[in-house]
Amino acid sequence: MTNQEVQFIAKQTMDYIKNVITPGMKLTQVRKMCEEKMLELGAYSFWYWDIGAFIFSGDETTKSVSGKEYETADKYIEENDIVTIDLSPQRNHIWGDYARTIIIEKGKVIESLDAVQNEEWRKGLALEQMLHQELIDFVNDATTFEELYYHMNRKIAQAHFINLDFLGNLGHSIEKKSEDRIYIEKGNQTKLIDKEYFTFEPHIAKQDSMFGYKWENIYYFEDGKLKAL
């Protein structure tokens, strides 16, 4: 199975959960449904601390913790809610890594950004999408992980948002062993193009807000240009 196929398992699972998630579900139930769906679609296991789905909702969407410490909260999906889901399927040491922040209003998932009624949530997701477009526009075959780190953190700060990641990074290389990952962080002089795949996953919040946003894709170079897997 290829990297594209394993990433597709994560994408299919996200589409599935968006169609079935409803107010009143417990986050533990949502996690179980996501993990069972990934296994059904062909994942053998989950590469990040054997947790297939990291899920946060409401005022816990600003939380950033290691998988070693993560526990799914004993919370229910609300009628109007913000939910972040981060998926980590694995098959034969090939990883998928895919996250989205989902908006639920009046009991339904809102797919279109323009249709989100909560202005704060809409602006948070809009910035996430802008940052991913900025990634495509900014990166070239000479860009290092550190250069991307500084550039994107400037963009986040200019928008009056903060980087919530507990290590301060914005993504990592895709490897076969978790301990081999390198990060979009200060001091990493490796060129992005020297890694076959890497994630970009800014976890951000408006300053002094209780709500956080995450949007993650895997990227790779094709003919010198950056593309999403």
UniProtKB/TrEMBL annotation:
Superkingdom of the source species: Bacteria
Q: Which InterPro entries match?
A: Creatinase/aminopeptidase-like, Pept_M24, Peptidase_M24B
- Per the UniProt record, one Pfam family is Peptidase_M24
Where do the Peptidase M24 domain residues begin and end?
5-220
Task: Name the SUPFAM superfamilies on file.
Answer: Creatinase/aminopeptidase
Residue runs in coiled coils: none
Protein name as catalogued:
Peptidase M24 domain-containing protein
